[in-house]
Specification:
The protein is 72% helix and 0% strand. It is built from eleven helices and no strands. Helix 2 crosses helix 6 and helix 6 packs across helix 7. The longest helix is centred in the C-terminal third of the chain and has 34 residues. About 2% of the residues have low confidence.
């Protein structure tokens, strides 16, 4: 009787549906581990810092203070914002800081776990989820401070402020999506992190963070089409009680982010084993 000969070959096709299902499954299954990692990092971060939780909002506060001083001293002349300028500047820099933190979160969370990546087998998506937990913690503190800031300058309470956390979730979604695409290269090359820092500093000046969109000129075009613009403006409008003028663009950006987020999770899942292999070599 002749024996059947079978040849096994490495499968070269990438099944995106299966990879996405496995990634989402690991995200859900590792939620307890992610929470433990986030609690550990948060406690260590503030236990080893003299100023503690103040660092969560010190950067946006100092950035806003510089622009408030420049505006009040007449060094620069900014167009009317419709609200007290300190509220406009601080809300813009605070929302911007959340977006920047969201972009850096996937890379920083994975980078911080380099020591255990090569030693312990666990769902790597737990690192992403722990980063999101830390973002939510820091963002909640910043949101409370912003609400106090708004009341201090007499803007008052508006029902739209209750929707502000939803806009912040949109900002975190946008930043995390972008960060997922940058993480694999950032883990291999430290230059990527420096490029992100430099690029975000430049991008801030073509985003209505501390000044309004000009009425004419090239800056008007750049700021209008900048995908971060509707996130900043919609979130700020909800805080101060304005009707969001860029709500449609804001929704479009979030709808585009959703499939890109899934694609980013797939790329992360494919690339992490390769990165771990290189780190352990």
């Amino acid at each position: 009787m002749a024996l059947e000969t079978r040849v096994y070959q490495k499968e070269r096709t990438i099944k995106f549906g299966a990879l996405l299902k496995a990634s989402l499954g690991d995200l859900y299954g590792s939620r307890f581990l992610a929470r433990q990692l986030a609690e550990r990092d948060i406690k260590a971060q503030y236990r080893q810092s003299y100023l503690g939780i103040v660092w969560a909002f010190l950067t946006p506060l100092t950035t806003a203070a510089v622009w408030i001083f420049l505006n009040s001293s007449g060094t620069i002349r900014l167009s009317d914002t419709g609200v007290p300028y300190p509220v406009y500047a601080f809300s813009g820099t605070l929302i911007w800081s959340i977006i920047v933190a969201s972009i850096n979160s996937p890379m920083q969370s994975t980078q911080a776990a380099k020591g255990i990546l090569t030693k312990i087998n666990f769902p790597k998506e737990a690192l992403l989820l722990s980063g999101v937990y830390k973002l939510l913690f820091d963002s909640s503190i910043k949101i409370l401070l912003l609400v106090l800031f708004v009341f201090f300058y007499g803007v008052g309470f508006h029902w739209s402020i209750l929707l502000f956390p939803i806009a912040m979730l949109g900002a975190i979604l946008f930043g995390t999506t972008l960060g997922l695409f940058l993480t694999p290269m950032g883990l291999l090359y430290k230059d990527i992190g420096k490029i992100i820092s430099f690029g975000m500093q430049f991008l801030m000046y073509v985003t209505p963070v501390v000044y309004a969109i000009p009425k004419t000129g090239i800056m008007k075009t750049l700021m209008t089409w900048n995908p971060i613009t509707p996130i900043i403006l919609t979130a700020r409008d909800l805080v101060v009680g304005f009707t969001p003028a860029h709500l449609d663009y804001f929704i479009i950006v979030l709808l585009v982010c959703l499939p890109l987020l899934f694609l980013g999770l797939i790329i992360y899942r494919i690339s992490i084993p390769i990165i771990v292999e290189r780190l352990s070599a």
